[in-house]
Amino acid sequence: MTHRRPLWITVFRWVAVLPASFVAAWLAYLLVVFGNRLTMLGYVDPDSFLARGFVALMSHMVLGAVIIYVACFVAPSNRPAVAAIMTALTLLLIGVAAYFAVLKPDYWALFGGVCAAAGTCVTGYSVHSGEITFKEDATRERLEDTE
Description:
mainly alpha; 82% helix
């Protein structure tokens, strides 16, 4: 006995993949920056080179990882394909942003782009290879095994 969800829910989830992933990544980025600034408040100058590099490294890596993870979480099926497509799309957007960062020149933006690309690639590979699984997929596999 398989459980099927209504068609409108499936369509809504496919439509929500891009907006949900980019909004969640933006919120995660802001949360990491705010958390780092808050924890550095009394101990480290937040505008020092190392502090700025650490905040850029962590926030952009989380941004890249969350884009892929949330896109795969929201997608109702074909998660490895969604991971591959979203990784390619995100890397394309990072490349465009890096082009404009070179023109300006803004080296912190380039560093952030490299960090975001690393987070994107690692998470995309992990989802695509099956290292990251989702509860819905595990439940479906268990149901298929019992039939």
